[in-house]
Design brief:
Metallo-beta-lactamase, Chain A, Rossmann fold, seven-stranded mixed sheet, 13 helices, globular, binds zinc ion
Length: 475
């Protein structure tokens, strides 16, 4: 897979692309484009997962942030925007371009991430868990606010000039509200190169999020490979929910759904409201117990026409994600009141993989109840409580207490926001021109390799899997 196009960082070249994140891993997305003196950073993500990756967030940036002309964000997930406050702290003060929904959602995501960082540092200091003198947050709410002040919303499908040498255009790519692929147009002495950054590619047939649009032609392609060698299990989430909600209503029980605050909660709320509207399931009370999910839902409603369906045109006045039978629990006391709630009802709360948040107190309260069903939505990472439950654990530890698992646990597979192997190939199918080179990023090695093998064998595309901090020349 290796080709001789790699150059050491720092060697002067006319057009250079450096991979400062999402190389050999799925997090920390950061791609630096340099055209003579012009510099553009595509995505500014935080490294997540194992500590060897998280530790990278504390390193000094491998380039001078004050020299960047701008940052472009593909979408709002923390592994794509979570390093922005530190970039600003290290001297970046230029514009941060993003679609309007991404810019709005970034406020919710970054302030929440800052809150978690501050709480975590505080906890470590109180419990003396830090190896250092004093545990510090990666960034504070003030840092996040400073970064958010640089946001410049831009529309889809319109070239934005960054410098004489660099412009870019956003393209709909599904995945989450406001997500984009970014086509960068680079000009240097009459030499023009188009580089397409896929961002995270969404799925086809998602009930709420738009399908990815065909990608524009490009000279170079930087393509994600999260599911480069895997397929999602075929499962219609509607069918699963019809079964689950009807049982919940019949048994007058509680359906507890751990769900990510952004995108997953809104997808499920929309699905449930649609099933109720079409009388496939009885009208059931839905409680959304997560302040972040509620803020994200407001943004989903604000951009009602950015989805596959216009949310305002469905089911009467107002947004279909809010209103009748959807109850929003913003305050902690409302959340606690749900402990006494009798079914039939749905409680949706985060975090999605049961790593913290309000869902924990619902679990402590309902794991012992055999009438409760816990519906795990999507992939559960190793080491999480979600994974333990998905694997059928009969007892689990939460906050140093042991809880017997008497509730029923089901896993749903049809709600992933990531294109799988076939969907990625389907997305790229319309490309007529063979890219000079395809760079495969944002994937574990096995996934990127599987995809590289396919491109080489089936399409005869030259592919390359870059290493972290590697710089290549585009000529
Ligand atoms: Zn994403």
């Amino acid at each position: 897979m290796r080709s001789p196009c790699a150059f050491d960082t720092g060697t002067y070249r006319v057009i250079q692309l450096s991979f400062h994140g999402a190389a050999g891993t799925v997090t920390g997305s950061k791609y630096l484009l340099t055209v003579n003196g012009s510099k553009l950073l595509i995505d500014c993500g935080m490294f997540q997962g194992p500590s060897r990756f998280r530790q990278l967030n504390w390193d000094d940036p491998p380039f001078d942030p004050s020299e960047l002309d701008a940052v472009v964000l593909t979408h709002t997930h923390i592994d794509h925007i979570g390093y922005l406050p530190r970039l600003v702290r290290h001297g970046f003060s230029g514009p941060v371009y993003a679609t309007a929904p991404t810019a709005d959602m970034a406020r919710v995501s970054l302030l929440d991430a800052a809150h978690i960082q501050e709480e975590d540092a505080d906890y470590r200091n109180r419990k003396r868990l830090s190896r250092h003198k004093k545990a510090l947050p990666l960034f504070t709410k003030e840092d996040a606010e400073e970064a958010l002040g640089l946001m410049k919303p831009v529309p889809y499908d319109k070239f934005i000039e960054v410098t004489d040498e660099i412009s870019f255009r956003m393209h709909v790519v599904g995945h989450v509200l406001g997500a984009a692929s970014v086509l960068c147009r680079l000009r240097d002495n009459g030499n023009r190169k188009d580089v397409l950054f896929s961002g995270d590619v969404g799925r086809y047939g998602n009930p709420l999020t738009k399908n990815p649009e065909p990608p524009p032609e490009c000279d170079y392609l930087v393509c994600e490979s999260t599911y480069g060698g895997r397929m999602h299990e075929p499962e219609d989430p509607r069918a699963v929910f019809i079964d689950l909600i009807n049982k919940t209503a019949e048994e007058k029980s509680v359906l507890l759904i751990p769900a990510f605050a952004v995108s997953r909660t809104q997808q499920i709320t929309y699905l449930l409201k649609e099933l109720i509207r079409h009388e496939m399931v009885p009208e059931i009370e839905i409680h959304i117990d997560s302040p972040m999910a509620i803020s994200a839902t407001e943004i989903y409603c604000k951009y009602a026409s950015f989805h596959k369906v216009d949310l305002e045109k469905l089911g009467g006045p107002g947004c279909v994600l809010e209103g009748k039978n959807v109850h929003l629990c913003r305050k902690r006391k409302d959340s606690k009141l749900l402990n006494k709630l009798k079914g039939p009802a749905v409680i949706m709360s985060s975090s999605g993989m049961l790593t913290g948040g309000r869902i924990m107190h619902h679990l402590m309260n309902r794991l012992k109840d055999p009438t409760t069903t816990i519906a795990l939505a999507g992939f559960m990472a190793e080491g999480t409580l979600g994974r333990r439950l998905a694997e059928g654990a009969t007892e689990v530890r939460i906050h140093k207490q042991t809880f017997e698992v008497k509730a029923k646990v089901v896993t749903m597979h049809g709600l992933s926001g990531h294109a799988d192997f076939y969907e990625l190939l389907h997305w790229l199918e319309p490309l007529k021109k063979e890219p000079t080179k395809v760079f495969l990023t944002h994937g574990e090695e096995s996934q990127s390799l599987a995809m590289a093998r396919h491109f080489q064998r089936e399409r005869d595309w030259e592919t390359y899997i870059p290493e972290l901090h590697e710089t290549v020349e585009l000529n």
